[in-house]
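### Sample
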Amino acid sequence: MGLKDQVMLMRWVKLHISRFGGDPNSVTLLGYGAGAISITLHMVSPMSRNLFHKAIVMSGSVTGQWPLPVEQLGLAVRQAALLHCTTENLTDMMSCLNSKHYLEYANTLPHMFEFGRNNPLILWKPVIEPDYGQERFLVEDPVRSYQNGNFMKIPIITGMTKDEFAGQAISILENPRLLKTMAHNFEQIAPICFLYSAESPRSQNISIELKNAYFGKESLEYAGTLQPMVELYSDALTGFGVHRFVHLAARSTKVYYYRFSYQGQRSHIYYPTNKPYGVVHHDDLMYLFVEPSVSRMFTEDDPEYKIVDKLTRMFTAFAYKGDPNKQSDDKLRDIRWRAFSFKRQHYLDIGEEIVLREGLNMRRYDVWKRLFPLNWKRQSKHDLLDYE
C-alpha cells in the first residue's frame, strides 16, 4: 500500500499546496477500496496527524474482521520463491526482491492467491510495527485506536455501492470446479474468501454461522445462490468494515454515510448478458471521474448526467467546508444529507432518487457484529490482541 510513501506525499502537499492556490489547513483525502483503507489507517497513524482535515472514504475500511500482523515473513518468502530468489538468507533474499522488475511481481500475483483467481482479495496487509527506534506508521491495532478515541476527529463521507463485490461472487459461480470445492469445503474455504483467521479456534463455527445466515439450508451449488453470494462477499470485503468504521467514528465526529444504488448504462460487471449486473465496486467512480476503460465522459444529453452533477456538487461542497449540504445551490436544495446518529442511523441512498433512509443492511451486519464483537480477539499467527 506504500503507506509511508503516502505520508511523504502528504507532507510535500502541506509544504507546497499554497503555491498552487491551495490551503495547507484545508486538505481533503479521497480514497477508494485500498485507498479508503489507507485513509482509515492515516486517521490513526501518528505519522499522518495534522496532514489532512477532511476524508472521503469510499468502499473500504481497516475496521472490519480481518486481523493485522506484526510481520509477513511467510508471505515474503512465498513471493521470493516465485521470483526465483534465495530464501535461505534474508539479506540476500531482500537484495534479490529489490532487483526485480514490477512486471515480474505482477506476473507472479495469480500464484500468490489461495483459492481461485483472487482470494484472498487482501493479500499484503499493513503491519503493526515493533518499536526499533524508527518512525512507526502503526503503533497498535487500528480498531483499538478507534475504540479509544485515538484518531483524527475530522468530517467524513463514507459508504459503499449496493452490490460491491458481485464480481468475486460471479467468478466463483461461473466456475463449476471452484463452486463445487467451496460448497463441499466451506468451513475451510470461507476464511480465505471472507477474510478472517483460519487459525482462530472459532473459525469453524464462524464459517457455519455465515453459511446458515446467507444460504440457509440451500446448497451453494443451487442456481439461486447468486444474490446471497453477492451479499456475503460484499459484506465481508467492504460492508461490515465500513459499517463498523461509521459506528466507531461517529461517536466523536460528523460522518455522512451513503449507499450508491444508481444503475446507469455502464458498469464494471456485465452479467449474465450484456447488461450491467447491479451496482458494483468502482461503478460510482465513473460519476466522479472519467474512467476511459469503462465509460466516456458523460454529457448533458446522457441520463446519467443528473447523478454526475449532483454527486460532484455534494463532494465538492464537502471538500470546501466539511459538509455536503449546500442550500444556496439550486441543484442540492432538495437534498438533506443528515450526519449519522446512533438514534436514527441515517444514510443517503443515491439512486434514481436521492433519499435519506435509516438502518443500512442492519440485519446482515448484526450477524457480523455478533461473530466479531468489539471485545473479540483479533487473532493472527503472530499476534493476539484482546480488547476490553
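The beta strands are 28-32, 54-58, 156-161, 255-260, 346-350, 354-358, 377-379, 384-386. This sample ((Mediterranean fruit fly) hypothetical protein) is used throughout the tutorial notebook.
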